[in-house]
């Protein structure tokens, strides 16, 4: 009976070894969570297209996409390992690293800055320097101050001669009602919303007035995830890249994928946003030179307090 006993012991040992670890079945998809920077919108079409077309499944990743709550601090969740991936505004990524969070940009989602100064076409503001002596609405965020300062200075104006009023995130209603001469906002959101409300507008993009053409939205992971599970990072980056390539070639289908997952969105609004985003909504390698220019711009305008190590803050080799 000794051979049979030995065989049983070996089988039990193998069974026990297979039960160790995270309990996942061999070959089972690896679970991961991606938290968005904002409520789902046209900028995220590539992610939803990748989900709908099975690109994450192809990489053996079971990806859950979540929108942040009103009080959610996404960089802290990412740094603490509560989520594996997040879409972050590039300024928030830099600030988080300055606060000691070792999170890393892995790919760009939107290839150009979205920030702009927006003014009604019927008004007197035809270029940023025309804001001298006039009123511009700002949200109260430091990035808005940087946009106003950069655009006025680059256009030969004096930022100190602009009357700034804090209007929160009400640029559309404030501009439509004529309460301000111009306002900071996103050219893919507030400018589009104004036009759809019948308010033609002039858009002064920050990268045309002083700022470098930095990528606005970044797919980000923690250093721990990158070091401990590089295959997962490569898989998510690859599938997300395929999703945005699909959105670029088939925008109407990608929009359908977004709306199927988030039916509360208005099709007309999202279609209009996607239309203006498409030229910059494409995968491309992170450019170290542009990222260094962006970090210097953020430092110059007080968004960062010290120089940023771009090579540590971004995954530049793939």
Your description of this structure?
- This protein is of the alpha/beta class and 318 residues long.
- It folds into two domains: 30-112 and 214-313, D-Maltodextrin-Binding Protein, domain 2, CATH 3.40.190.10; 115-208, Periplasmic binding protein-like II (D-Maltodextrin-Binding Protein, domain 2, 3-Layer(aba) Sandwich).
- It is built from 14 helices and ten strands.
- The protein has helices at 2-18, 45-52, 55-58, 74-79, 90-98, 142-154, 171-176, 190-196, 223-228, 230-249, 251-261, 267-277, 288-300, 310-313; strands at 30-35, 61-66, 85-89, 103-110, 115-120, 135-138, 163-166, 182-186, 201-205, 217-222.
- The strands form two sheets. The protein has a five-stranded mixed beta sheet with strand order 2-1-3-10-4.
- Helix 11 packs across helix 12 (267-277).
- The longest helix has 20 residues, at 230-249.
- It is globular, with a radius of gyration of 23 Å.
- The termini are far apart.
- Residues 1-23 have low confidence and may be disordered.
List the helices and strands and how they pair.
Elements: H1 2-18, E1 30-35, H2 45-52, H3 55-58, E2 61-66, H4 74-79, E3 85-89, H5 90-98, E4 103-110, E5 115-120, E6 135-138, H6 142-154, E7 163-166, H7 171-176, E8 182-186, H8 190-196, E9 201-205, E10 217-222, H9 223-228, H10 230-249, H11 251-261, H12 267-277, H13 288-300, H14 310-313
Parallel strand pairs: 1-2, 1-3, 6-7, 6-8
Antiparallel strand pairs: 3-10, 4-10, 5-8, 5-9
Helix pairs in contact: 2-10, 2-11, 10-11, 11-12
């Amino acid at each position: 009976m000794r051979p049979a006993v030995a065989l049983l012991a070996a089988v039990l040992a193998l069974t026990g070894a297979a039960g160790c670890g995270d309990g996942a079945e061999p070959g089972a998809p690896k679970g991961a969570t991606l938290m968005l920077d904002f409520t789902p919108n046209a900028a995220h079409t590539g992610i939803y297209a990748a989900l709908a077309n099975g690109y994450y499944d192809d990489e053996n990743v079971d990806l859950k996409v979540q929108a942040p709550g009103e009080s959610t601090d996404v960089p802290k969740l990412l740094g603490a390992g509560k989520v594996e991936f997040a879409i972050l505004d590039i300024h928030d990524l830099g600030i988080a690293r300055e606060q000691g969070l070792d999170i890393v940009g892995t790919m760009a989602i939107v290839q150009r800055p979205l920030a702009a100064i927006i003014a009604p076409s019927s008004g007197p503001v035809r270029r940023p320097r025309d804001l001298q002596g006039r009123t511009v609405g700002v949200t109260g965020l430091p990035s808005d101050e940087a946009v106003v300062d950069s655009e006025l200075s680059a256009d030969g104006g004096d930022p100190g001669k602009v009357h700034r009023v804090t209007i929160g995130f009400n640029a559309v209603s404030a501009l439509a009602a004529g309460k301000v001469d111009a306002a900071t906002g996103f050219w893919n959101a507030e400018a589009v919303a104004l036009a759809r409300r019948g308010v033609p507008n002039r858009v002064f993009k920050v990268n045309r007035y002083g700022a470098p053409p930095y990528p606005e939205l970044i797919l980000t992971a923690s250093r721990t995830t990158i070091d401990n599970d590089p295959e997962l990072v490569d898989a998510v980056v690859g599938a997300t890249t395929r999703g945005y390539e699909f959105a670029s070639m088939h925008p109407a289908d990608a929009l359908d994928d977004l709306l199927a997952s988030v039916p509360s969105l208005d099709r007309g609004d999202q279609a209009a946003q996607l239309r203006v985003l498409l030229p910059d909504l494409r995968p491309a390698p992170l450019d170290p030179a542009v990222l260094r220019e962006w970090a210097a711009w953020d430092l110059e305008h007080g968004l960062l307090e010290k120089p940023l190590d771009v090579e540590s803050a971004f995954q530049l080799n793939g």
